[in-house]
């Protein structure tokens, strides 16, 4: 899985603004990379000027400091421009990050010697349709969730795969997740863990009532459509972002995106399975949010 790559010439380091120590480390990492002969800029993950410079092709690597939430935001930003991401964990969980907070000085010199590989992760392209009108589209790394809103009543959701009827779910929500998302909300809802290199969509119902109560892994290349059939509020949440209101009859389509997130890895490719047990023993709700 190794790839031969030229040394990085211009690196962007971005920190989550709510992680106090991340901004300090951000400056230190930028200074360290400059000492290695690499150009480096740094700032916060929401800095509009730095984001525009990345989108313009100025940087060839993003180092993201935060938790898994920061890695999701980095993926949304970098994937359309094919910029790889290295995550340094400043959060609580770190399913997606690569380097521990106290290890970056040891491992970052390997960026200059090519001792790394790229892990390619599938994204979903999701669209909201009302009749024949496209109302919105999103690129997500974890999942889309179609769920009930403020009213505590299950929603009726009609799921189709590749244009063919699958099932009508009566549930709190239906999750369409990537393999990356299989360790997020889908895992909490009882779904299976998928290896990150797969390109399959995972369907998991949340609190289904007299409906299919088992997760379904779709064939690679399949797409899914979820149609709302309810007389009360339903919402769409892409990668945990602000909910989008759905009307009765709205359809949400999801398929593999043309974009791929590239995570830079120093660990051997077996890291995913080796880290599963340590990750499963953590509960971020008891130690703080994963940012």
How many distinct beta strands? 17
Helix content: 10-25%
Largest sheet: 6 strands, antiparallel
Q: Report Rg.
A: 20 Å
The parts where pLDDT drops under 50 for at least 5 residues are 1-5
CATH topology of the largest domain: Tumour Suppressor Smad4
> CATH superfamily membership of the largest domain, which one?
Probable inorganic polyphosphate/atp-NAD kinase, domain 2
The largest beta-sheet arranges its strands as 7-6-17-14-9-10
Write down the overall geometry. Answer: elongated
Strand content: 35-45%
Summarize the structure.
With 291 residues, this protein is α+β, with helices and mostly antiparallel strands.
Characterise this structure:
Strand 9 and strand 10 form a beta hairpin. The chain starts with 9 loop residues before the first strand and ends with a helix. It folds into two domains: 129 residues, Probable inorganic polyphosphate/atp-NAD kinase, domain 1 (Rossmann fold), CATH 3.40.50; 136 residues, Tumour Suppressor Smad4. The protein has 291 residues and is of the alpha+beta class. It has a six-stranded antiparallel β-sheet, with helices on one face. The N terminus is likely disordered. The longest helix has 16 residues. It is built from eight helices and 17 strands.
